[in-house]
Amino acid sequence: MNRFVLCSSLFVLTGLLSVPAASVAAAPGGQHADEVDPRIGTGGDGHLFPGATVPFGMIQLSPDTAMPDFKHAYKWAAGYQYGDPTIMGFSHTHFSGSGHSDLGDVLVMPIAGDVKLDPGDEKVPGSGYRSRFDHATEVEHPGYYAVTLSDYGVRAELTATQRVGWHRYTFPTGKPAHVLLDLRPSIYDYAGKVLWSNLQVRADGTVTGCRTTRGWAPGRELCFAMRFNQPMTSRELYNRETDLLYKGFKGPGNQPVDQNAQNGRAIVGVFDFGDLKQPLLVKVAISPVSEANAIANLDKDGQGWAFDQHRDEANAAWNKALAAIDVDGSPTQRTQFYTALYHSLMAPNLAMDANGDYRGPDHQVHHADGFNFYSSWSMWDVYRAQQPLLILLHPDRTVDFVRSIIAAQEASPFHMLPVWAYEGLETWCMTGYHAVAIISDAYVKGIRGFDADKAMHAMVSTATYGDYGDLADYMKLGYVPIDKEVEGGSKTQEYAYDDWAIAQMAKAMGKNDIYNTFEKRATYWRNVWDPKTGFMRAKLSDGQFREPFDPASAGYGDDYTEANAWQYSWYVPQDVAGLVTAMGGDKAFTDKLDQMFDAKVDPAIFKDVEDITGLIGWYAHGNEPSHHIAYLYDYAGEPWKTQQRLKQIMDNEYGPGPAGLIGNDDLGQMSAWYIFTALGFYPVTPASTEYAIGRPFVPRAAIHLSNGHTFTVTASPMDNDHPYVGAVTLNGKPLDRVYLKHADILAGGELHFTMQAEPNKTWGQDISARPTAMSPYTH
Fold it and tell me: PANTHER family per the record (predicted)?
């Protein structure tokens, strides 16, 4: 999501594409980390970082090439752009593929020779502490990153554990070695976003500090503790407040240089080590709570100085996580697949100290009892495919995720579930209350280990909080009036889906009163359907549709969230059968889908909406509202067109290399779309137990489930000459329906696709073969 105006989403991963006839078996022993390319998505608008992290870890230690002011920060949402010529340092926190920026905490830069205290201009070598580098010297691997800083001749290596970032710097001989620590930078806005910070060197040489920023989540606090494996020869701590670029700020001026402590809004520390004959090791732990907790995290998770051991542990953690799926295919295919899976397993992030402390949306310190607290919730994005993928592959994590969501609601001053949260704090970015879909999806798919009654209370409390997104009018009128709330059309649709998700969990729990209330609310999408124009539209408070109406129009303040009528009119995932009927039946429905995909559209029409990218007609694969649309032909008796459109998307929307993403990965959602689609099925309606069947894009994939079973998908012949599904069997028996049940997967077995050159226009045509929905199917 990019929502520099209202927050948002986008992306498109990197490229698979056309499957060659010959394929190669997967890497032996599940060493899939070797098949990941972290460079994918680090250029263009991918917003992915190449640095070191572990699955769902608290640390994302990565190079930052720029941290421009807020108005220009979009492309640097992850701190790194592949096309940049210099590195300004290595910071410890980053978003993975978000459309909005923040983080970039505790920036460290190794320096050989003279020290400059400011990063300088990348166009003027030597103007600051940043250094030029050559991509040929970079090594990017899950859990490990290395680069040579050419201006200093320093070899920098990074790895990570859950709460600790590990640095190894090899300095050239004959020049004094320094480590600069800059507490000013923020990816949200380099200068002026630090409200306060402090830095001190303790008696044992441990460097600690905290800072409070007023970025995307106002008042965010982060503390750290840092240690070196060699003693300092000297140190200088600076307060650079007169150099702040914050407009209108009048500070006390530069403070005297200190060796032990400084505080203020622009703190820089320089730690000197003389002429080193061996590598300098640095370890940094972070905490959202306190310096004491950061030290405790370092003591517990950062013992010793075995850099190579921790690099190997990070690699092993990734191999274990990626081993959930074994895929056959060409080396290019497997790189695409495992890079997508890698990006799907980065968030949400651990946001809790080793002692169980975490900071909640009330900015207070709370304690997790018996679970790990996670944050970084891009709910509008990840409920669609990324979280369903984790329910399938890593259900043990899902228990902690759901408990974290509930804990956040309990700490919320508004009794709301997270909307877009990170570091435990809420940003209120995007629309809907899609945390309910994540909780319900987990429950109806059999995930337990959390308090279902607490979860239901949290869901109902959220869905009835009238001050949020004009829920008050939604509950009263059955829609969100556009004269009261921007994007009232799409908000009505999203609320209705979320209400359906609440109803499904209530039904499974036997809470009939709640089920009846929210099942009724799930029909409110009909209140913004305009049969005259054939589109979803926003209404005014008086019940009239807003005029004038242009289905191509998109932008903040319009009827829809990061989309236009062509894209959002398909968003009724809970009742596609009802939408088919509203549009005039099967043929009218699929004809309009064809019209959308086949339209001639000038991309310049969306030049002011950064997220609407990856156009195929009006279909915009670069943003989440379009993600389910290609699968909708299944619901109208023409699954062969779903197969056709999916190949069109895969062939045109993905490409290898740093610029392989046409937009933001959005904390794994776009990558998860790719994984599901490559496997041959997709969760069109999270909180149901069904997956719409598309077609696979790999010849074989074995999903190793936590219950000990293996579900294998095979397809033959798998090549460009056979793009359509001829027949499907499940465990050797013909499968006539165009959906897969969650229970089918959990039971293990084999789903086999027989591919052919021409479409099979009879398979999946019958109403009985289609995925279920609220309304009955009609032709």
Answer: PEPTIDE N-GLYCANASE PNGASE -RELATED, SECRETED PROTEIN
